Amino acid sequence: MGLTVLTSTVVIACGPFFPWQLLDNRKQTLLDLPSTDTFSQKIKNLGVVTAQEKQNLFSADNVNLLASEQTTCPNTDEAYKKAATLFHDKQWEEARSAFALLAYNDKNAAQQVCAKYTLGRIEKELGHFEDAVQSFNGTAYLVANGAPDPLHLGIAAYGEAAGVILDQIGKRITTPYNPKDDSGGITLWNVGGVKEDSLLQLQRAVELYLKQVKLGENSGLSSIVIILKGLSDPKNPDAKLLLDQAVHNPLLRKILLAYVLTDEIDYRTYSKEQTQNILQAFVKAGIDQKNHYDDLGSLGAFAYQNNDMDKAQVFAQYDWQKNQKALDAWVLAKIALRKGDKEKGQEFYHQAIAHFNDGSLRKDNIQRVQGERAVLTLSQGNFVQALEELWPVRDSYWGDVVYLAENVLTPDELKRFVNIHTTVPRDRQAVCDQEVSNENYYDQDTDKYYGYNLAGRSMALRHLLARRLMRAGRIQEAIPYFVTSADANCKGIPQHVQLERDYIKATTDMRRSFWATDRAKAAWKAAVILRRHGMALMGTSGYPDQNPGDYAYGISQMMGPVHNSNNKPWSVSTEQVRTGASWPIPNHRFHYRYLATQDVLYAASLIPHQSQAYAAILCHANGWMQDTSNYGSPPAIYYYPNSDSYESAEEHAQVSLWKNSSYANAKSVALYNLYLKNGPVVSFATHFGYNCPEPQFGAVTKVKRDLFWKKLRSSFHFLKGQ
Predict the structure, then answer these.
(1) What is 380-410 written as a DSSP string?
(2) Contact call for residues 342 and 376 (beta carbons, < 8 A)
(3) What's the pTM value of the predicted model, to 2 decimals?
(4) Contact (CB, 8 A) for 201 and 246
(5) Residue 639: pLDDT band with limits 50, 70, 90
(6) What is the DSSP letter of 422?
(7) Structural domain includes residue 237
(8) pLDDT at 10
(9) Residue 322 within any structural domain of the chain
(10) Of 197, 208, 190, 312, nearest to 251 (Cα)?
(11) Degrees (nearest 5) of the Cα angle 477, 542, 572?
(12) How far apart are CA 130 and CA 159, in angstroms?
């Protein structure tokens, strides 16, 4: 079937290749160039097959299991069986003659395919290498033209033919497999003495493997990787000689560039030495006008990734002047930024975006370029424009959108942006939500997989603005931005609207009601609303609240210009000032619980200390703080889980956990001490903070009256004593 498949683990490309946020390390974002090619797709596009091959040949990776389990050629006659006996007895010459007759007998087409394939194996054993290649190719030809192939020998024959060719220009070695430690079983290819036709033979072998890849045979792809690994071996002088020739070959040149620019970990089997060896071979080839290279942009990207900026600029600039590809402009933008020229860098970013349709960048890199331009715009102090440029790629870099919207733009700037770019979609199928979520609140636009779509991001931004206005005390302004796509389908008032109205009334009554007890009852109601629904009403998507969003713990990252020194050259002081001004007070996770506790303390100051209501509301508030102290989350907005050192990030997280717990615990202790100092003896005092009863504000009037008469009697006793 060709060369042995490489042992590897399938993983999703992530981390440095597809950063979820661009602003957490702006230097890396703007100056590093991520991988620009997907190896498997790039290679698949290079394979050439005929319509007959595509129709009748197919990959053994996707065969019918019943057919793949067969080990012998079906429906064979006595002549075939006699020939097979000669083959197994290694009587090669006699077997060759017997199978040659069978291979040209078209009475049994399936048997003819088996005979042709076996003839190739025999000729290989006899050292008739070119004949073997022709027999294997003949096998594929028979199948492509309609011959039955239950053993799928047609596509396998291409790999066998390629292997025979490779053996003429090098040596294949497969290390023994060791099941104890799952090691070995890997095939290596060492280039031998380079001959006049070595490059041509190498191209022939690669073309055959490309046919397998095009038809869906993964072993062909892995075989090509093994060839490229052997070809780039810096310790093999013969390989270096053949590599110098290969970079001039149009097909091999494209494959080499795809190999070193790939982001698929399955196929990143080369070392840094190999990469440098390939780069030097390309550099040695130089720019030859007569060759009409159409891949110098990729070569510029390759040089940039290997920190050879001079060569990167030469190749990218040359290709830009001739072809004006988006990839060229992207590389030139980064080179300009390395030189400190932000204006020129911005110009090349605009050019890259203008040439997106040329096919030189895949979809994820197109989004990356758009995001990088926004980062550069932010570094120049153009905050609203940065969000404008980031908005089209909001689905990829939502964490960056959240940072700008929640921490950098002013509420009024964000409000204008939201009014221009978002609307509330009408959804006649949406069910009116009559249940207001608790702390595990998710934005209304999440689907069952907690994933956003672009329309959903618009709703998420509207809710983010609503919560930010609530935190700023602009409650009436916030209400329209809480509207959901299902509100129009509600028969009555949507629950979230009623909640917002109740909160507004409670916060109004707690300041304006005439009687102190009424003010206390309103303050308690406001506190309960915040405790139960504070995340939905005013929680931050980033730190410190880490909600709501499409993950249970928020966006999990945040990026400020101060904490990470890599961000300093790429920010302006105004950003830092704005970020600090946007912090919630206090800057701790579930910050609204602390606001609820403040309302409780206000209510407690308005009612008699000896009342049950006084003890009950302090009991509840104490429980809220105890519950909050169980959550560990960084209290500062400048927290970096993606710091350079895993240990330092872990240490910072532990310190943050301690600080957050200590802050909430201190509030809990203060509330309990306040009760001990002033409160009455109650049955729930022994488990203060747990199973607290509802406050009985109706009994407050009687307590006040009793206190009044008690004080009056004390006054009479005092006067009588005089």
Answers:
(1) TT-HHHHHHHHGGGTTT-HHHHHHIIIIIS-
(2) yes
(3) 0.79
(4) no
(5) very low
(6) -
(7) yes
(8) 23
(9) no
(10) 208
(11) 90
(12) 14
Residue 156 lies in a domain: no
Cα angle 26, 591, 680 (rounded to 5 degrees) comes to 160
What is the pLDDT at residue 548? 54
Yes or no: say if 627 and 594 are a contact pair by the CB < 8 Å rule: no
Mean pLDDT of the chain: 82
Amino acid identity of residue 652, one-letter, is H
> Could you give the C-alpha distances from 220 to 59, 106, 142, 156, 224, in angstroms and in order?
10, 30, 20, 9, 6
pLDDT 10s digits, 420-464: 999 887 777 777 766 554 333 333 333 333 334 455 788 889 999
- Identify the three-state secondary structure at position 188: strand
Q: Name which of 421, 412, 349 is nearest 379 in CA terms.
A: 349
Q: Look up the domain containing 189 and give its range.
A: 37-46+170-285
Q: Are 227 and 159 in contact (CB under 8 A)?
A: no
The pLDDT, as a whole number, for residue 555 is 56
Q: Are 34 and 396 in contact (CB under 8 A)?
A: no
C-alpha distances (whole Å) from 627 to each of 489, 540, 667, 704 are: 37, 19, 11, 33
Six token digits for residue 408: 């950098």
Model confidence at 482: pLDDT above 70? yes
Per the CB < 8 A criterion, the answer to whether 202 and 227 are in contact is yes
Cα gap 683→696, rounded to integer Å: 14
Average of pLDDT values for 238-242?
96
Compute CA 468 distance to the chain's CA centroid, rounded to the nearest angstrom: 27
State the total domains in the chain. 1
Q: DSSP character for 191?
A: E
Please give the full DSSP string across 499-539, using - where no structure is assigned.
HHHHHHHHHHHHHH-SSHHHHHHHHHHHHHHHHHHHHHHH-
454-471 vs 516-538: helix crossing angle, rounded to 10: 150
DSSP code for 552: T
Query: For residue range 500-539, what is the model confidence (pLDDT) as tens digits?
Result: 999 999 999 999 988 888 899 999 999 999 999 998 899 8
Q: At what angle do helices 591-604 and 516-538 cross, to 10 degrees?
A: 180
- The mean pLDDT of 165-178, rounded to a whole number, is 88
Q: Let me know how long the chain is.
A: 722
> Per the domain annotation, does 59 fall within a domain?
no
**pLDDT, tens only, 306-316:** 899 999 999 99
pLDDT surpassing 70 at residue 640: no
Residues in Cβ contact with 311 at an 8 Å cutoff, skipping those fewer than 6 apart? 279, 283, 300, 303
Q: Which of 294, 291, 333, 342 lies closest to 312, judged by CA?
A: 333
Question: Which residue reads 């080839």 in tokens?
Answer: 285
Residue with tokens 């129009």: 488
